[in-house]
Amino acid sequence: MSSLLNESDLRHEAAVVWLEDTENLDYVRQALDKLARRRGKPRYERDGRMVGYTELDQHAEADPDSGLYSRRVFFLLPHDRDSEPNGVYEVGAPGEAIDPRTLQARRVGEKTPRSQRGPAAAIAVST
């Protein structure tokens, strides 16, 4: 899922849990995953690495069809800027990328000049 989440999708988030320090990360990718539990570290089955996840409050209900909970997972892929600073995202960022410094429970997070680094970000800041 892209960074274009609605805050209504996140209304039962209780906390954001970081697995690593995000101070030196320009961006993280976010996805809304279907998971078996409200809390605890979820299984990670993508390339790259999980850098964080959300935990849900006790009022969160599982999807009646699947029995799964919707929780955000924050991750980076092997070709992202932190691992390949001169790679494909030297300028720009993936669509689901947001600045981890803007993340909190029940808030979508924002794209910032730091997360979007490049000509598009410079144009957006100057207008």
Detailed description of the structure:
The chain is mainly β. It contains two helices and five strands. It has helices spanning 113-116, 119-126, and strands spanning 13-18, 28-35, 49-56, 69-76, 97-98. Strands 1-3-4-2-5 form a five-stranded antiparallel β-sheet, with no helix packed on it. The longest helix is centred in the last third of the chain and has 8 residues, at 119-126. The radius of gyration is 15 Å and the shape is elongated. The two termini are 29 Å apart.
The rounded Rg comes to 15 Å
Tell me the number of helical segments per DSSP (H or I, 4 or more residues long).
2
The helical percent reads: under 10%
Major β-sheet profile = 5 strands, antiparallel
Number of strands: 5
Strand content: 25-35%
Low-pLDDT parts are none
Structural class: mainly beta
Give the ordered list of helices and strands: EEEEEHH
Q: State the distance separating the first and last CA atoms.
A: 29 Å
Sheet with most strands: strand arrangement: 1-3-4-2-5
- Mean pLDDT level: 89
What spatial form do the alpha-carbon principal axes imply?
elongated
